[in-house]
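PROTOCOL LOG
Step 1. Enter all chains and additional molecules of the complex.
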Amino acid sequence: MKEIVLALKGITKIYPGVKALDDVSLTFEKGEIHAIVGENGAGKSTLIKTITGAIAPTAGTIAFGGKEYQKLDPIEAIRVGIGAVYQEFNLIPYLSVAENIFFGRELRQGAFTDMKAMCAETEQILNELGVRIDPRARVKDLSVACQQIVEIAKSVSKEVKVLILDEPSAPLTNSETQSMFRIIKKLKAKGVTIIYISHRLEEIFELSDRVTVMRDSKKILTLDTGETDRKSLISHMVGRSLSDDYPRNESDCCETTLQARGLNTAYVNNITFDLRQGEILGFAGLVGAGRTEVARAIFGADAVTSGEILLFGKPVRIKSPADAIKNKMGLIPEDRKSHGVLLSLAIRNNITFSSLKHISRYGYLNKKKEDAVVHTLKENLRIKAPSVNQQVKNLSGGNQQKVVLAKWLATNCDILIFDEPTRGIDIGAKQEIYKLMRQLAESGKSIIMISSEMPELLGMSDRIIVMHEGRIVGELKKEEATQERILEMASGEAGGCGCNAN
Amino acid sequence: MRIRELFSKYGIYMVLLLMVVFFSVLSEAFLTPDNLFNILRQVAVVGTAAVGMTFVMLTGGIDLSVGSIIGVTGILTASLMVMGVPAVIAVLIALIAGVLMGLLNAFIINEFNVPPLIVTLGMMTTLRGIAYLVTGGMPVFGFPESFTILGQGYLGIIPIPVIIMGLAFLAGYILLDKFTIGRHIYGVGGNEEASRLSGVNVKKIKYFVYSVSGLLCGIAGVVLLSRTNSGQPKAGTSYEMDIITAVVLGGVSIKGGEGKITGVIAGVLIMGILSNGMIITNVGDYAQRIVQGLVLILAVAFDCYNQSRKASAGTLIRENKAAALNENS
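Step 2. Run joint prediction.
Step 3. Record the structure below.
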């Protein structure tokens, strides 16, 4: 048995209405690379945050360095030697590498910072990691890969004992990932414990000593990586039984409403697919696979560099969301609060915000017409609020989502794009949203649904398109779709095209 | 809880009432019809421009060039009239010039993505420089007698500048409350990206509000010129302070998206009463400045404090969102 550096005991985190972590106990050994895997929303991020002290657990303890903590705070965590490199770097772009590494604890000579000493020490740390970066270079001039190394070096300089890496390979190319692996292995050799979060299973098999699977806010199990394989890991990740409470679509017609032909944007490549009337077309893929970007491209929110969009067989030019709305499309964005609702405005103003033309003449609002529209939609969608003049910020997530949906229904659109329609919504409201989506499809609307929740995706979609690194890698009919197949395709296994989209 | 809500909704009117009572007690000369109309006439120029500023600030922007636009349009009108251009035409040209200056502000904000604070700060200095350059620093005068009506005339017992301000507020209220563009202005201020994704042409809205601000400054500039009956290159200097203070006092959030134009009327009146009351009670000019500066800070502090209270109530939800975003980036 190796020395245990960090032990979590019964960590539970409860948010109002959501159990984000459920009785998680986990130990980390000195000098091991410990991978944590799980689907989106399995609780990995919350777990990391309790270790770094960003959030306080509702129950449970953290044992580290011979002490037991009810909770860590971020400063304490850094002091005792817990470091983390997040997907968003915490670097200051206009400062040099050395200044970033010593930020907040600059070496001094008298009253002045001692740039020479900081550069020398930085150089030594970077040498030990086996990389060459000029300590005096400005961080903003470095590549993403180098910035990441600076982040790691920053932790190393603070004599880190446990280093958490959250999806470190996501922004890197293959060769950059390999050099990052070398650095990680060097740190391991020095006795640093690495906690490695990644969606890419191949990396986990290449790098880690042990792997912990999380699902539904719980720890499922911890395995020695050598004693498991890809298939069984996926089955542990997926694990749950499929519920049958998704309304079904019996129809299998119909006319094609929207066609995307070879769409390219800065984020996605060669997107081609058809959307039929009355169907729900699911988009599956890992986070960062480009699903949201496809939605934004179709909706005119991101610039399309080439390719075309056809509506009912006719090419259309969509250069802005306003164009998309004119063509009877609607987008329910994943980030509801900053892209979906207008929090400071009343429910009424939100609902009619995109359809003011229908209720006005020469720009003059007909408030009676507006009242009628708003009240009908409020009733039909069962938006729970004492008054339509209430600010949307006072509503629950589910009701806010209904307001966004109401906004598009008021425009009388044909095509609706739902991006993570039930994220952050409680179970009851989820079911309502599902029913509404199915009703809309049956009433002849075409629906695109992007979702990271497998049961939802499998339950709701009539067809599923799977994406990986900005490309479509496959399409599955409802009957052929299983969680295992989707996950395999989404992680780039079955889809072919191993190339890196950079 | 209830009381807090009441206060944040009607607090401004209570402050207005308190100030009226306060100065009435301090000085008998305050609460007379003459003095009240006097106050209204004094705030007319600032009040008219405050309507445009309300539009701009509702979109989350700011216009520091208002004082200079007032000055330049005044000088322009004055110079044209001195050159023999009929007053009506001169005024029309000045108003168009005001709109163009607003459009130029919006053009730089929209097309080069420069923060409004910087654009209009630069424009403030530039336009003021033009006013001095054109006049050589000397006043321009010698207008037709009839021109003074705008600034000094009465309709019945109501001074014309007050009527102009009233019409500006009325038009502003109707546009913001009864027209689709009003909804879009609030939307852009509340959340620009969400508005764009809802089909709003955000740039168009910004062109609109800055040109409205320019137009109303043009009107204010002409009224001011008519009142003083001489084109001063320094006319309107530091008006942006009074105008912004009045709008913020009136409850328009400096972050945009929230606030009502009816509140701005109260804000303008408070500024006017404060200044008039201080003159009547013999508070010196220097002390007045201190008070005005403090009022601006207090008004903004109140707004920001309210915002942060609301924000902290939403923290838990936002934390969840942040977690979700992290997984997504």
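Step 4. Note key features.
Chain A has 17 helices and 24 strands.
The first helix of chain A runs from residue 44 to 52.
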